[in-house]
Structure formats: structure tokens, C-alpha cells
Amino acid sequence: MSEKTRYSDEELEEFRAIINEKLTFARRDYSQMMRQLMNADGNDVDDTSPTYKVLEEGSATQSKEELIQLASRQQKFIQGLEAALVRINNKTYGIDRITGELIPKERLRAVPHATLSVASKIARKK
Hints:
By secondary structure, the protein is mostly helical. Helix content is 66%, strand content 0%. Helix 1 packs antiparallel against helix 2 (50-89). The longest helix is centred in the middle third of the chain and has 40 residues, at 50-89.
């Protein structure tokens, strides 16, 4: 029996379902972050005392920066998942981009947008 070079269509469909589910939640979370950043939820503290307002603005700035970072990371995650769907359509999903070998299913279930096996990832960092 020859070594498997790609995942079967059934296996790819299993991964597609996992990715689509993660995408649904990721897009929802991203959308909530963007709403919060744009203050669309309208829970601002405009009418509080000046001293309190200064303190609020300081922590608001910090949390806004953190939120921007989180939103950026979330957007990158969404792009990674979308790219994984393209690889599923091309039937190249789950293939390590360095070694050309299949990435273990356990890793893909945990990190469905992975393009490297753990071994390749570690080797690349060295």
C-alpha cells in the first residue's frame, strides 16, 4: 500500500464542517469587536464627572488598543480559515507545505487552518 498523499473527499468534508463552524463563531466575535470599537452599542459615559471621565478615557484607550489587537488577530484567523476552505476545494488541504506529507488529523482538528505539521513548525523556528 502506498503512502496516502491527500485526505479523501469524506475526510475533507469533515474538516470543511469544522472550519465552517469555527468561521461562524470567529465572524460573530469579530463583528462584536468591531461594533464595540465603533461604539455602536452606545454604552458610553459622556455625562459622568470630569475626574472620572479622565480615568475612564485612560482605561478606554488601553482596552480599545487591546480590542484592536484582538480584532486584528481575529481577522487573521478568519483569513486562515477561509484559505483552508480554498485548499479543501483544491484538494490540497492537510498537506504540510514544507514536507508535502499529510498533517495528522488530530492537529487539523485542533488547528484547522494549519499548513505545517508540528515537526515542520518546530524545525522552522530553529
